[in-house]
Amino acid sequence: MVPVQPERPGAGAAERGPGLGGDLRFSTELISFEQDPDGVTATLLDRGSERRSTVRADYLIAADGPRSPVREALGIGQSGRGELFHNVSITFRAKRLADAVGDRHFIACYLTNPEADGALLPVDNQEQWVFHAPWHPEHGEPLEAFNDERCAQHIRTAVGMPDLEVEVTGKAPWHAAERVADHYSDGRVFLAGDSAHEMSPTGAFGSNTGIQDAHNLAWKLAAVMGGWAGPALLETYGMERRPVAQATSARAAARSAEHSHPGYSAPVTEGQGPQSNVMAVAMGYRYVRGAVAGADSSAPAVPDHFTVSAEPGSRAPHMWVHRCGVRLSTLDLYERTCVLLTGPGGATWHEAGRRAADALGVPLDCYRVGEGPDHELAPEPGTDWAELHGTAPDGAVLVRPDGFVAWRAERSVPDPEAAMTRALREVLRLDG
């Protein structure tokens, strides 16, 4: 999580979007949309020219924030504990604050001054900063009470610099909540990001979870629209992502309690452990139902502790390998197609995978990890592909484009082509 300077909102998307085939429009409002069996028609309003236009698309993805007009229009409800606490974000300039911060580096610094608590976030680590101050509307505290002088004085007290010159440049109220949409799609319309889930910002789980939504949905849309997966694959989006959001939003609330986030006084949840097991939340989540074959359906979506695993539904592990003399991570192999990885004894899987994929019309990259010219990937000394992936040397692992293990064979079988065909059909919903 990195605070973005308000002078250049969306700069990265504006620069890269067109080159990736995107049509990026600023100051544009979605007025309405209609979906039918073949696609979605959206009516847009250019807020500058007041001109209306329509866009026709196969699908609509609503990443329109926690108040999501699209979610409301679809009548999708939300579940969860609701609002947790309220803050006012204050953007300000203070040149001397950098001297006090010194060589401390942080994303957010929680200040626990009993007279003025809050969270300090750097924007440029020089003179631009953000401060989250607690706000208690539930006790009748009006937003108007946060005038510039009060905000500046609160910041001075919180940082312990009574003579600090503070120039308030902006204020915005916000609330933290624990809410998850009851379902993630309706027909050809999908929810992603804050429209699908709200959570406390402590830990930056919300932004990570939103990016994970997009990654999960993008490859499935590409597969369905490319003709190498059945339409039912899209139903696995909410099936996979919603349990992760529910568990993550609960962990985010627990982390806020652990850090005594300004304005939040809930007790720390017993048994959560230090920092709500950040690695387990950010990297250890798994899909126990959905576009996976052979996953443990009794396993939690977010475990208590992070462990590296290649079980179906988990994030594929990293391993350094060499391809044509170039060092790369196995994670770099997982991009636009499914990938079949086999060990030094997996030649039959390699051949069977290609035949099965060709027969089904599924793009599949196949790699054998081992020494010698018959292997596309050479492991670094001291690494063991089979041990890392939980298989025998003649086992195989099928990895999705988003880097999650879709299926695993711990060892060779009498008919590997039939096994591969069943796995691809199940994962990609080719029978539906």
Automatic annotation (TrEMBL):
GO molecular function annotations of the record: FAD binding; oxidoreductase activity, acting on paired donors, with incorporation or reduction of molecular oxygen, NAD(P)H as one donor, and incorporation of one atom of oxygen
Keywords of the record: FAD, Flavoprotein
Q: What is this protein called?
A: FAD-binding domain-containing protein
Biased composition, class Low complexity, residue ranges: 7-17
Q: What would be one Pfam family of this protein? A: FAD_binding_3
The region called Disordered is annotated at 1-21, 248-273
Show the InterPro entries listed in the entry: FAD-bd (IPR002938), FAD/NAD-bd_sf (IPR036188), RIFMO-like (IPR050641)
Q: Output the lineage of the source organism.
A: Bacteria, Bacillati, Actinomycetota, Actinomycetes, Kitasatosporales
Cofactor(s), names only, from the UniProt record: FAD
Domain named FAD-binding: residues: 21-250
